[in-house]
Amino acid sequence: MATMDGRITLVQESRFQLTDEAGVSHLFTLSPWCAAEPAQLRPLAHSQAPVRVTYKAGVDVIGQVAQRIDVQAEAGR
Amino acid sequence: MNEPFVGAPEIAASLKPFAIYDGTTYYGRQQLKPWPFEANVVGGYIFLAGLSGSSQILATVAAATGRRELDGAVRRGRYLSLLAPTIGSALLVYDLHTPKRFYNMLRVAKATSPMSIGTWFLMGFSAFAVASAAGRAGADRWPRQRWMKSLSTAAGVPAALAGSGLCTYTAALLSATSTPIWASAPATLAIRFGSSSIATGAAALALGETDPAARAKLDDVQLCALAVEAVLSAVTKGHHKRAGVEGAYDSLPGRIEQVGATALGVLAPLGLLAATRAMGRRPRAASVAAGILTLLGSATLRSSMLSLGNVSARRPDVSLQFSTPGNLPEVRG
Amino acid sequence: MNDHPRISDFSGSDLDRMIPDESRFTAGVLIEPGKSYGFFTDTTVCIGCKACEVACKEWNNLPADHIGLTGQSFDNTGELSANTWRHVAFVEKSGCGGVRDNSEAPYQSGWLMLSDVCKHCHNAPCLEACPTGAIFRTEFDTVVVQQDICNGCGYCVPACPFGVVAVSENDGKAHKCTLCYDRLKGGLEPACSKACPTDSIQFGELSDLQARAAVRVEQLHGQGVGSAYLYGTPGAPGATGGLEHLNAFFLLTDRPEVYNFPVAPTRASNRVAPSLLSGLLTVAALATAASFILSSRDR
């Protein structure tokens, strides 16, 4: 599955926006099988922690479905 | 339908201009949304719930008669009732779109939601059915431990009570929606599902029965339930006509319901059992054939009725006709 | 200061904090828990700009769905769905035969537009059907699906008489308009009504909106639009069958079916008792019959 690195910049329920290293934002929703729960997204957005999202393309939407979210160590700082 | 509108006066005034539906749709787009289930998975559950519930009911009734030739049927009834707690529950969890949260069903108990009512019927039924089957298995293994058979019989009574809910709440589950085919015949659909469940329980118990006298009795129970179901399938269709939703039958699920569930699944075994009973000769082959037809017919009834409902939800002409003022309960009476 | 949590998402703002009770200035209403709020959608002033759809998607972070053209007038949204909580319907009534009309009656009688939304019914069938309690009534008298509880059973979908709520294939949960629950808690009016440039979508306290709507109908009747009527107010079409009233109600000028609305929807839970009781009676009767048959002497 594809992965994308970035920071979570917007959260609504189980939907979130991930801004990647190039500054481009992408829309994600949590898969029903993802271990992360919607309540865990907002703290990630507020802390601006770098995350790696493993995802699949969404069905009939312009957006991705997050299968897994891993918090990364801060690199190069 | 389309008859002049008579109803509560203050409601009638605002609804009167729209009393007769003129066939308008919005680009033919659906006005309702179909239930996003897999008809065969949920239909399979409804079938197993009916079979398990009615097997337990018949086992409990048979045990209460105290007749020795029915003892085999009692045992099979107790064991068959394990189908709903095991395979049935698994099918239900499989059909959820977020299966890992299945336990959220146990957060609340709501009288307005047949799915919540059914969850608790299934929970209660499972506990007592497992106790009853375990007691029976123990009694067969250690015949001297007489308390085990007593446990099985005692647990069978609450299991049968919960079982009667389990084999009929599924009709309320369908009727308490806005889907035209299900919502337009709440009482008759429930009577049909209830009688179909009892027929499958009797059919399943008769299939394994070697004692001719016991088999004849079980076949008579099946005959009785099938007769009720045959009448109610006609009455249900009548209600669909009256509500103006019979257009949905012009579809594959509609034809499967008419041919597979009603003709082959109810009328054929009904005719077979009635004929052998009238002849006075009751060959096992006829009983087995009728039993298999009844079981297949009941499973087909459930899955085709689910699909047929979704057909009616997708067709705007059907759903908009269903929601005309003439179908309001206060107008219909 | 009781700041809205989303304020940190917009660090580029010139303001150091949110305007308290902003809805007082944008909608003329103070949002307080315990009161009923809703939408009044006046279709006679809708211009079909779809700003409401866009504002809804923006605020709620909803993805675009059903990508493509429908060929049904300007309606390429199609329907309300798990990812679309406002849907502008377009009905072309004049020039349908390929010949353009030279004159039209006033108030968009030739081209009807309506911004459809969850009706937030008084006796909401989806809420009553929900077996997990995920769908609840908020302190603003609106109906919301709690995403951390919904397990995607999908039973709210057939319960809805308006075809509003839907289960997303992507996250396996039911979704519908929340009447911007988070914004109401922060003192903001919902995104769609704030974005509406013609005030076709009006947000407010329900009793105010109903009074305003009744005045508007009178005004239209006086101006010669005799076909104007309300949909979803007490006693009107759309508020039938035990639904009592809809918190999001509409002013229409044509039959409800034209806009894909049912004339007389019903409350699904009214059918639980008759169905359950007749089923239980059937089983009881057949079990009694079985006890006679099974206990009979062998022939």
From TrEMBL, chain A:
<protein>
    <submittedName>
        <fullName>Uncharacterized protein</fullName>
    </submittedName>
</protein>
Automatic annotation (TrEMBL), chain B:
<feature type="transmembrane region" description="Helical">
    <location>
        <begin position="117"/>
        <end position="139"/>
    </location>
</feature>
<feature type="transmembrane region" description="Helical">
    <location>
        <begin position="42"/>
        <end position="65"/>
    </location>
</feature>
<dbReference type="GO" id="GO:0005886">
    <property type="term" value="C:plasma membrane"/>
</dbReference>
<protein>
    <submittedName>
        <fullName>Polysulfide reductase NrfD</fullName>
    </submittedName>
</protein>
<keyword id="KW-0472">Membrane</keyword>
<keyword id="KW-1133">Transmembrane helix</keyword>
<dbReference type="InterPro" id="IPR052049">
    <property type="entry name" value="Electron_transfer_protein"/>
</dbReference>
<keyword id="KW-0812">Transmembrane</keyword>
<dbReference type="InterPro" id="IPR005614">
    <property type="entry name" value="NrfD-like"/>
</dbReference>
<dbReference type="Pfam" id="PF03916">
    <property type="entry name" value="NrfD"/>
</dbReference>
<comment type="similarity">
    <text>Belongs to the NrfD family.</text>
</comment>
<feature type="transmembrane region" description="Helical">
    <location>
        <begin position="77"/>
        <end position="97"/>
    </location>
</feature>
<keyword id="KW-1003">Cell membrane</keyword>
